Every structure is written in structure tokens, then in C-alpha cells.
Predict the 3D structure of the following.
Amino acid sequence: MKFNAGFIYVAPNCDPKQQNAVIPGESIDLYVYGCSAYSQAEVVAKSLVEEKGCTAIELCAGFGNDGIARIQKVVGPDVAVGAVKFDLHPAFGFKSGDTVFGK
């Protein structure tokens, strides 16, 4: 059985319609999307579950605690949501993603 998973990253000026890729594999297909705000990431996460059949979503270190919770809420309890974690991200001036992307 094939496993479908998603990876969402946040960075300034990303557009998930432009910053996206599928990495196909024999046992897993990984859908990767870049977003510029949590609100975009919520739409992408919901789409990953409903349209791509993803049962797991990994979030980049740009997501703060609020961002992680927002994604879990939108996909529901049956989807595993994990996150790489920096409390203060070095690429974003040592700020939390909640401050930078929580639009």
C-alpha cells in the first residue's frame, strides 16, 4: 500500500501554486508546498488530505506553536501532523513563525 505525505514550508513571497513539487516513490509519494502565510498553509493542508489522500503532514521549522495547532485543527485528529522545530528561527531574524507568518 502506498503512503501519501505532505511537507509544507513557510517563507516570504512563496506561492503554493508556484512552489510545489511531488517526489514520487515506490512506497511513498511526498507532496511539497511553499506558503507565505499560515492561512495559505491551512488551504494547502486541507487539499493534501482531501485531494491527495495524505495521512501525514510535516511542517518546516518556520511554523510556531500556533501554526502547528492551526494545521492540526484544519486537517482533524485522524491526520498525523509533525514539525521540525526552532522556537526562534535563524532564517527569520530569530523570530517565531507565529510572528512572521501568522496572518
Notes: The mean pLDDT is 93.
